[in-house]
Amino acid sequence: MNYQKSIFILPLLCFFLLSCQDSSMEPVNQFVQIYFKYSFKNELNTFENTYKKDLVLDGVIEVKFWLTDEEQNSIFEKAEEFNYFSLPDTFKYISQYDSISVSIEPNSGDQILRIKYKLKDKTTIWTYPLNEHNSQVRDLMKLNSFIISIIESKPEYKKLPPARGGYI
Question: How far apart are CA 152 and CA 115, in angstroms?
Fold first, then answer.
């Protein structure tokens, strides 16, 4: 009788463990949706549950990626702390002198951060160089660094190959 119970319970236990494993692979509801294009070709897109990492010489790799409830809440709280939803839509460096033009090569292109939460939906675009004396720019950069630290702390990111090469 004990042997029969073991035969019945063992497959049930295996089924349960496999079910739990599969469900952990399910994306968490992204109630704070983020589109974040930064550096050259790195891109977090929780609207589509993806992350693209720029491997430079090896192209771009795309993986399934989402944020936990805790991560989403912390990003939204940080966005509120920095008044992200009140920031200008665009940040561009403007020289104090009309005759001076500033550019950076290689140009990483437009950097974009969009955060959507319920009825709040804000997109900010910037290009480098930025006026680091502007407090709104400093807050935006702090928010960006915060989001990048969350991205880079996740196991999905850590499993990605390192970038090979660089932009010069």
Answer: 19
Question: What's the pLDDT tens digit per position in 113-158?
Answer: 999 999 999 999 999 989 888 999 999 999 999 999 999 999 999 9
- Grouping H, G, I as helix, E, B as strand and the rest as coil, residue 113 is strand
Which two structure tokens, joined as six digits, stand for 110? 């437009």
**Helix/strand/coil for 121:** strand
Burial class (CB in 10 A: 0-12, 13-18, 19+), 46: buried
Rounded distance between C-alpha atoms, residue 159 and residue 162, angstroms: 9
pLDDT tens sequence across 75-104: 999 999 999 999 999 998 777 776 677 778
**CATH code for 25-158?**
3.30.1560
Q: Do the beta carbons of residue 125 and residue 111 sit within 8 Å?
A: yes
How far is residue 17's CA from residue 119's CA, in Å, rounded to a whole number?
39
Amino acid at 83: N
Determine the average pLDDT of the residues in 68-80: 98
- CA-CA-CA-CA torsion sign (102, 37, 142, 63): negative
